[in-house]
Amino acid sequence: MEFTLIQALGIVGSLGLLIYGIKIMSESVQKLMGQALVKLLNVMTRNKFLGILTGLITASIVFSSSSTIVMAVSFVNTGLITLAESVSIMLGANIGNSVLTWMVSIFGFEHNVSFIFIVIFAIGTPLIFSNKHKLKYAGEFIFGLALLFLGISVILDFVPVIDKTNTVQTFFQSMVPLGFLGNIFFVLVGVFLTIIIQSSSAAIVLTQVLCFKGILPFEIAIPMVVGQNFGRTIVTEIASLAGNVHAKRSARVNSLINITGFIWAVILLTLFPVLDLLNYMAVEWFNFDSVYSTTGAPIGIALFHTLLNVINALLLVWFIPQLVSLATNNIKSRGKSDELFQLEQINTGMMATPEVSIFEAQKEIIKFGDITLKMNGIVKSLITEQDPKKINKLINKIQNYEELTDKIEADVAEFLTKTSQRDMSEASSVRIRGMLRIVANLERVGDIYFQMCKTIERKNKNKIWFTPEQRNNVLEMFNLVDKALVAMCDNLNSNYDDVSTKAAKELEDSINTFRTSLRKKHFENVEKGEYNFKSATAYSELYNSLEKVGDHIINVTEGIVGIH
Questions:
Q1: Residue 175, SS3 per DSSP
Q2: Which residues contact 50 (CB under 8 A, 6 or more apart)?
Q3: Both 216 and 365 in a single domain?
Q4: Residues 227, 186: contact at Cβ < 8 Å?
Q5: Which of 100, 150, 154, 295 has the fewest CB atoms below 10 angstroms from its CB?
Q6: Would 345 be classed as within a structural domain?
Q7: Is the same domain home to 256 and 402?
């Protein structure tokens, strides 16, 4: 049978429908369950077996192992989980990726599929235009599911049916059984196909279609699936390039996992009757058709894909420390700046979801708040420190922190601004506006501490001394601000919906009241000549600056609760 250009274009277009359907399904589920999925990944990673289960569940729900793995990489990058904890998520995500393969093999090759999913289109389309976000996201999921199976239905129409005398079929059959080199060749074909299509799931589905149409023998499809399973590691490696050394190591661990699976799978396929065992399991255990038949081959592929990742997970779960060690030795740190946990934008899969991006930014803001708390303690110690070397060291540390606060504010603001341009709920939009207010105020706190540091530096340089009363009053002011900063950091670490401004306002009132009493007493002492003008100026600059810090602290808490 002659293969025409129209058929080729039809196959490409059908794959586009299929991939876009998977994309819509994945993104809609992430929008619908974003925070729940993030918390699931963040909480259930302390035990390696729970981590595997978490990765499996997450990848099954979002229909994408790459999205789940990229999310794990970004969590390592921001310090939310350790490299070792991310490994179990990856192992589980690889297993979860087979859910879509099973779905397609069981339902995708039934007759009248297009008619059934036209009905699903009819159900999902009205929901997409709903004003309620949850209904809208549910509609998008249904619409994506319909596109997925419509793509399969259309591709089945465009892929020609060939008989056993066809040249292509004869060529493939002549290569069976495959030796070691033959398996390697078709593994590489699978890798290449995944790179071209940019989706391991779509590549495996295409392989199932080719087997169903009788073009590709089952014996050749299996090593291709090994290659397609390995090919998705490229997505994670690319995503990690924007991250720090921790993200790169996490991506490298994922590559090591799939390389291990590739090696033992090729060896087993070459030395043992793996395909006959799959056929026995499909026929005798599950009552499916023979995997060597066109109708049973898609099921056989799904079964092999699942077993490949399950066995690989059960094998490697005992060697997580060794995988981490290999990745750590393979990816060398470029210095302290490379090892700093930082927010990175990985515009793939999960990270495209606003709810998940907000969670990431919140973790970055927590570190931002901790920096301002440290700055308060450093500047406070400058009031009593007498050693010039220690003073210079503390001043340099404050300057470095101030530069860091500028960078964090710019990076987080840019990240949140890009996130706000995506489709999101009103609650998420309010949250982003609040977070933008938070980072702006935290950056201003860093600036104030830097200016206070300069004031103290000038005071020391000009040999201006505080009276014991002045020194004690300033130290007491620092203590009040420290309490407010601790409360602020606690609020930043909490669920924003549970935060109240009551305690923060009480602390701000105490700062304002104390500053008012200091100012009144200060004017009286100046009139009496208790201290000179230069001392009075430095003194008033410090307590007024600390009062301004208090104002910014309450602004942060108001940003948390959504007051603009």
A1: coil
A2: 44, 88
A3: no
A4: yes
A5: 295
A6: no
A7: no
> So what's the pLDDT on residue 289?
86
User: What domain range includes position 140?
Assistant: 5-337
Note the helical H segments in 232-353.
233-240, 245-271, 274-280, 297-316, 320-330, 336-339
Pairwise CA distance, residues 372 & 552, whole Å: 11
Last residue of a domain, one of 307, 337, 367: 337
Phi/psi of residue 97, nearest 5 degrees: -65, -20
Q: What is the mean pLDDT of residues 451-480?
A: 88
Same domain assignment for residues 140 and 254: yes
Would you list the DSSP string of 130-159?
A: -SSHHHHHHHHHHHHHHHHHHHHHHHHHHS
CATH code at 421? 1.20.58.220
Question: Is residue 441 one of the residues assigned to a domain?
Answer: yes
- For the chain, what is the radius of gyration of the CA atoms? 31
Residue-wise pLDDT tens digits, 251-297: 788 889 989 998 999 999 989 888 999 999 989 888 888 989 888 89
In three-state secondary structure terms, 386 is coil
In a domain, 342, yes or no: no
Residues 365, 317 within the same domain? no
Residues 407 and 498 in one domain: yes
The whole-model pTM stands at 0.69
Distances (CA, A) of 454 to 230, 382, 548: 56, 11, 16
- Taking only the tens place, the pLDDT of each residue in 506-532 is 999 999 999 999 888 888 877 777 777
Q: Could you tell me how many residues make up the chain?
A: 564
Q: What is the mean pLDDT of the chain?
A: 82
Distance between CA 1 and CA 506 in Å, rounded?
83
Per the domain annotation, does 344 fall within a domain? no
Do 322 and 192 share a structural domain? yes
Q: Please report, as a single letter, which amino acid is at residue 355.
A: E
Gap between the Cα atoms of 255 and 66, Å rounded: 12
Distance in angstroms (rounded) separating the CA atoms of residues 8 and 16: 13
What is the pLDDT at residue 122? 84
Q: How many domains, the chain?
A: 2
CA atoms within 13 A on the CB side of 395: 17
CA dihedral 552, 554, 557, 561 (to 10 degrees): -120
Give 262's contacts (C-beta < 8 A, 6+ positions apart).
187, 226, 227, 229, 230
Let me know whether 15 and 104 are in one domain: yes
Contacts of 506 (CB under 8 A, 6+ apart): none
Neighbour tally for 537: CB within 10 Å = 15
Residues 122, 12: one domain? yes
DSSP state of 14: H
- Each residue of 209-233: pLDDT tens digit? 888 888 888 999 999 999 988 887 8
Q: How confident is the model at residue 151 (pLDDT cuts 50, 70, 90)?
A: confident
Answer whether residue 93 shows pLDDT above 70.
yes
One-letter amino acid of 382: L
Estimate to the nearest angstrom the gap between the alpha carbon of 176 and the chain centroid.
43
DSSP 8-state code for residue 340: S
Q: Which residue type does 304 have?
A: F
Among the candidates 337, 362, 385, a domain finishes at: 337
Give the integer Cα–Cα distance in Å for 415 and 352.
11
